[in-house]
Amino acid sequence: MGKLFAIVFIVLAIWVGLEIYSQGIGGAFGGLLSGLRGDTEATPAASARAPLDNVRDKVTRDHDEGWARRERMMGEGER
Predict the structure, then answer these.
(1) Does residue 77 surpass a pLDDT of 70?
(2) Which of 6, 8, 60, 64 is 20 to 30 Å from 50 at the Cα level?
(3) What is the pLDDT of residues 25-37, one digit of tens each?
């Protein structure tokens, strides 16, 4: 009986940990744990996408700068 209790406890602990890791304290379990953060505002799930937006913008900017550099180099060779 003790082994069964330990297995169930481990599975529940992993589930809670993954829920908090993937959605943050403010978004886990529908915001149930948002009071543990210390502030009253819960973190919306959309704010987790902000780093992805930053990366996408940087890649787009670098890609555009690379094409501009290639065009400048091709233009210099024709003169």
Answers:
(1) no
(2) 64
(3) 777 777 777 776 6
Looking at the structure of the chain, the number of domains it has is 1
Domain holding 52, by residue range, is 2-78
State the Cα–Cα distance between residues 32 and 27, nearest whole angstrom: 8
- Angstrom distances, CA of residue 28 to CA of 5, 17, 40: 24, 10, 15
Q: Residue by residue, what is the 3-state secondary structure of 34-60?
A: HHHHCCCCCCCHHHHHHHHHHHHHHHH
pLDDT score recorded for residue 44: 55
CA–CA separation, 20 vs 30, rounded Å?
Answer: 11
What DSSP designation does 30 have? G
DSSP state of 20: H
Cβ–Cβ < 8 Å for 23, 43: no
- Total-model pTM: 0.42
